[in-house]
Write a structure and sequence with these properties.
alpha/beta, TIM Barrel, 8-stranded mixed beta sheet, 8 strands, binds adenosine monophosphate, binds zinc ion, binds fe (iii) ion
């Protein structure tokens, strides 16, 4: 069984359509794939239909833009009831924050000598309801300002770079509670990737575990081997599920191929059992 529990389609900032992503999952030899677009469930119907056709099991997922004391934290939810009122309202608030900062980011880019016509940006966004910095990066690539998404982030878009404009994100403890109240299972994405370690100490993780966090993503490309070993130990101590996944973004992120990290079958069984127990969607 090959199980990949964290992927993005063009419904957020990946480059494959949901059906295209499921087709790629077949090629990658996956048996189970979770679609976890940023702050939206909109890709799930297409992915589920493709999974039925192509013989891949698709798990409903989402990656919620959360924060702790202002520092960005990503929270994965599995099996949430997609029509849950409280969760939907919070996701809408995040998406409005995403749309609401576009003008300010375009203004900064213009001031820096990198104007992006709105139609160029919105062609990159396509029909995604969740506009993100990778769409800006792709517009910058198209206009020849940068070579790739990595350069765009490292020079301009990352949290400490000049084009970054903050937006609303869900307090992470509240995110955990919302995921669980909607029947879902809550797993922290890449907890110690990209500078997050200082904001998510073992004590903070223990606190979140007491608050209902189900698991942490241990095997992720942003974690080196030593970090994975430490996180796996911590998951054991805190009785948290340890997952592994690719965080695939199609051609949008190099070194994140589908199935490059995987989740153990017994962990998936535990996730399913909890979703069933909580009245979520399997
Ligand atoms: P946003 O959703 O606008 O906050 O943008 C964050 C997303 O951009 C992340 O979820 C990643 O998919 C992507 N990202 C963040 N940092 C980088 C980077 N250094 N290179 C490429 N993509 C990145
Ligand atoms: Zn992303
Ligand atoms: Fe993430
Ligand atoms: Fe992700």
């Amino acid at each position: 069984m090959r199980i990949d529990l964290h992927t993005h389609s063009s419904v957020s900032d990946g480059t494959d359509t949901p059906a295209g992503l499921v087709a790629q999952a077949v090629t990658a030899g996956l048996d189970v794939v979770a679609l976890t677009d940023h702050d939206t469930f909109d890709g799930l119907p297409e992915a589920l239909a493709a999974g039925g056709r192509l013989g891949v099991e698709v798990l409903r997922g989402i990656e919620i833009s959360a924060q702790r004391r202002g520092a960005s934290v990503h929270l994965l939810g599995y099996g949430c009831r997609v029509d849950d009122r409280a969760l939907s309202a919070e996701l809408a608030r995040v998406r409005e924050g995403r749309s609401g900062r576009v003008g300010a980011m375009l203004a900064r880019l213009s001031a820096l000598g990198m104007p992006i016509p709105a139609d160029v940006l919105y062609r990159q966004v396509g029909d995604s309801p969740s506009v993100g910095r990778p769409h800006f990066a792709d517009a910058m690539i198209e206009l020849g300002y940068v070579a790739d998404r990595t350069e765009a982030f490292d020079t301009w878009l990352a949290d400490d770079k000049p084009v970054f404009v903050p937006r609303y994100a869900v307090p992470v403890a509240q995110g955990v509670a919302l995921v669980r109240a909607s029947g879902g299972v809550a797993v922290l994405a890449h907890p110690w990737g990209r500078g997050r370690r200082e904001h998510l100490s073992p004590d903070v993780l223990a606190d979140l575990a007491r608050g209902g966090l189900d698991g942490i993503e241990v095997d992720h490309q942003d974690h080196d081997q030593a970090t994975r070993d430490e996180l796996r130990g911590l998951a054991g101590e805190l009785n948290l599920l340890a997952t592994g996944s690719s965080d695939y973004h199609g051609t949008g992120k190099v070194d994140h191929d589908l199935g490059c990290n995987t989740t153990a079958p017994d962990v998936l069984d535990a996730i399913r059992a909890r979703v069933a127990e909580r009245g979520g969607l399997l």
